[in-house]
Amino acid sequence: MAAASTHWRPTERALAVAYCFECGEPLVTGVPPGEDRKRQYCPACGYVHYLNPRILVSCIVHDGERVLWVRRGQDPQKNLWAMPAGFMENDETLQQAAVRELEEETGLRIPATDLDLVVLSSLAFINEVYVVFEARHEAVELQPVVPETLEVRFLAEAEAPWDELAYPYTEPYMRRCYQRLRSGEKEMLLGAFSHNIQQLKNV
Ligand SMILES: [Zn+2]
Hints:
Number of strands: 12
Largest sheet: 9 strands, mixed
Oligomer: single chain
CATH topology of the largest domain: Nucleoside Triphosphate Pyrophosphohydrolase
Helix content: 10-25%
CATH architecture of the largest domain: Alpha-Beta Complex
Number of helices: 3
CATH class of the largest domain: Alpha Beta
Bound molecules: zinc ion
Strand content: 25-35%
């Protein structure tokens, strides 16, 4: 099985474009007139190619002390374990995005109204906003329904794949989550995940 990767997705580069959407002239990178940060822009017509954070939604499904994990079947982080998660589509709500991604990756269907918001966080190092919901569901046997997922399992903290996390920076939060599920307490965290530390506070 692959080791946990420390390679982060070069979001800015992936979203860069070569030519102006408005007039077709080549874009340049620099501080556009009247702005205060570097962006891609078109000197010919003034078009500015704004890059803004994407919204990543995730759903922690638990049955008491066990949490639903998926082993990823595609890159990035193929073969490693994570919570079911994905990016919001246009024309859907946060909760709809979370239950859609959950069903796509695990086959498990949960009503959007069953979700509780548990984390609202910045992932500034990859230009994403991370919204995490939580829902309780009986720990049923699940089989992967798409090639993007290799395994779907409800796992207790002692069984969780800590050495094979797709996103190792989430480990402290996931351990905190297990602890909270054992205690039965509720919490909603606001803050930021980063490579090495987390700054999340209870709100
Ligand atoms: Zn242009």
